[in-house]
UniProtKB/TrEMBL annotation:
InterPro entries: AB_hydrolase_fold (IPR029058), BD-FAE-like_dom (IPR049492), GDXG_lipolytic_enzyme (IPR050300). It comes from Solitalea canadensis (strain ATCC 29591 / DSM 3403 / JCM 21819 / LMG 8368 / NBRC 15130 / NCIMB 12057 / USAM 9D). Residues 1-21 form the signal peptide. GO terms for molecular function: hydrolase activity. This is Esterase/lipase.
Length: 291
């Protein structure tokens, strides 16, 4: 009887785990001791659009599985969603003002490399994934948004031409940044551009909304690194006539990095309009008394 109950318990747990697993695990690279993979959320009925999503966590933490609420909802809306695991070079060390700037840049660079390799893998296997490689959007939150922006406006491309030559002919259909930034605003050019959805809290003290040091470090600290946030990216997009929409959450802080769990209608509208070649709205200011 005890053996039967144990088998029944194991079967129930196994069935529950199977029911909860709405993704396939796909390995896309092995780098030294790191095996890199992605969760592929395949929709029952596809709308033809795919999303490559990069999680946040300050280049020291974060997990693909934590993005399940976002990925599952987009999956239900017909999107193929690929949530990638990437190298976290600052794991156990942090990413604060005490971390020397060269080490921060090395961590950012590694994450962009991994996102690039994941992109190449997805495109190379587009047929087996049953996706259209011309309709892939890149997105991310916080550190992941920095990766999403900078795989398009890449500060490391010239130093690693062989790796990034792929992007001379491939372009994402668009990008979505939740509390993101770039390290070089001059790299945001018309030539490299794709349509952008940018969302940021106006009082973000971690990743600046406008132009300011990351985590508001002062210039005497080892980790001082100037960032150009979503507002600055948007302002440059306006000047260059790059299609972009900015959602400004007045008074909000870095919590907007997780608003991809809330703004499903806005994301769905943006991606479908871009795919159809329709005009985007430009700047929407979201005001609330409490976030």
């Amino acid at each position: 009887m005890k053996k039967y109950l144990l088998l029944l318990f194991v079967s129930v747990i196994a069935c529950k785990s199977f029911a909860q697993a709405r993704f396939n695990v796909v390995e896309y690279a092995v780098k030294n001791t790191d095996t890199l993979w992605m969760h592929h959320y395949k929709p029952k009925v596809s709308n033809g659009i795919s999303i490559l999503f990069v999680h946040g966590g300050g280049f020291e933490g974060g997990k693909p599985i934590n993005q399940a609420p976002f990925a599952e909802k987009m999956q239900d809306l017909g999107y193929n969603v690929f949530v990638i695991k990437y190298r976290l070079l600052q794991a156990g060390r942090g990413f604060g003002c005490d971390i020397p700037t060269p080490e921060k840049l090395k961590a950012i660079r590694a994450a962009i490399e991994d996102a690039a390799d994941a992109t190449k893998y997805i495109v190379a296997h587009a047929q087996s994934f049953a996706i259209d490689p011309s309709k892939i959007f890149v997105s991310g939150s916080s550190a992941g948004a920095e990766v999403a922006l900078q795989i398009v406006y890449n500060p490391f491309a010239k130093a690693d031409k062989e790796r990034y030559a792929f992007f001379d002919t491939f372009k994402f259909k668009g990008l979505m940044s939740f509390a993101g930034a770039v390290v070089d605003i001059n790299l945001v050019t018309k030539e490299k551009s794709v349509p952008m959805l940018l969302a940021h809290g106006s009082n973000d003290q971690v990743v600046p909304y406008g132009t300011a040091p990351h985590r508001m470090c002062n210039a005497t600290q080892p980790g001082w690194l100037m960032f150009f946030g979503d507002k600055t990216v948007y302002e440059r997009a306006v000047i260059l006539k790059i299609p972009a929409v900015l959602y400004t959450y007045t008074g909000a802080g870095h919590e907007i990095a997780s608003f991809m769990f809330n703004e499903f209608a806005a994301m769905d509208d943006f991606m479908k309009k871009v795919t159809k070649g329709e005009t985007l709205k430009t700047h929407e200011i979201i005001k609330k008394t409490k976030w």
